[in-house]
Amino acid sequence: MGGVFAANMTGNTVLAGIAVAQHDYIRTWHHIAPLFCFFAGAMFSRLLLRLAHKSTPSLLIEAALLALVDFLPIAAESKVLIVAVAMGIQASAVTHFAGSAISTVVVTSTLARTAEYALDRIWPGEKQPIVPSVANVRLLALTWAAYLIGATIGAFLVPLFAWPLLLPAAILVLLLFV
C-alpha cells in the first residue's frame, strides 16, 4: 500500500532511511510502523511456540488476521499494519522445514541459498566450503516459486475480489490440517 510493505522489512527499512535523509518524517513513520508490527508479531509467535511447542496456534492466528482484516472498518494503512503483524507471526512460526532454513516471508535469502547450491553444483570446491551446503534446493526453489506465484495470483485477485486475503488464509488453514 503506497510503497509500504507488510512482509518486506528490508524494503521498509531502506525506504525509512531515505525518508529520514529527505526530512520526510511522515513517510518515515509510514515505513517504521510496519517494522514495529512485524517485530511484535514475530515475538508473539515465538512466545506461542515456546508455550505450545508447535506452530499450529501461531499459524491459525495468522490465518484469522488475514481472513478478517479486509472486513474491518479501518483505513488501508491500518490494515497494512495488521498484515505486518501476521507476516511477523509467519516469519517466526515457519523457519525450518525438511532440514532447511526457509523464509516464507521474504525471498532474498531463499534466492541466495539457491544460488549457493547452483554454484556448488556447477563448480564444486576442492576444500571444505566456507558455508555449509544447501540441504534442500528443491524446497528452496519451490518456496521462491510459490512466493512469485502467490504475488501474481494476489495481483490478479485484488481488482476482481473484494477480499483477496481470504484465499491465502484459507490455504494456510487447509495446509495446517492436511
What keyword list fits this structure?
single chain, mainly alpha, 178 residues, 70% helix
Overview of the structural elements:
- This protein has 178 residues and is mainly α.
- The protein has one domain (9-177).
- It contains seven helices and two strands.
- The protein has helices spanning 9-21, 25-52, 56-69, 76-93, 108-122, 137-160, 166-177, and strands spanning 96-97, 100-101.
- The chain has a two-stranded antiparallel ribbon with strand order 1-2.
- Helix 1 (9-21) runs antiparallel to helix 2 (25-52), helix 3 (56-69) runs antiparallel to helix 4 and helix 5 (108-122) runs antiparallel to helix 6.
- The longest helix is centred in the N-terminal third of the chain and has 28 residues, at 25-52.
Question: Could you give a short description of this structure?
Answer:
By secondary structure, this protein is mainly α. Helices cover 70% and strands 2% of the residues. Strands 1-2 form a two-stranded antiparallel sheet.
Fold topology:
Elements lengths: L8 H13 L3 H28 L3 H14 L6 H18 L2 E2 L2 E2 L6 H15 L14 H24 L5 H12 L1
Antiparallel strand pairs: 1-2
Helix pairs in contact: 1-2, 2-4, 3-4, 3-7, 5-6
- Globally, the shape reads globular
**Overall pLDDT confidence:** 85
Our estimate of the beta-strand percent is: under 5%
Enumerate how many helices there are, as a single number.
7
Structural class: mainly alpha
Low-confidence stretches: none
How many domains, in number, for the residues? 1
Order of helices and strands: HHHHEEHHH
Major β-sheet profile: 2 strands, antiparallel
| Termini gap | 32 Å
Helix content: 55-70%
Spatial order of strands in the largest sheet? 1-2
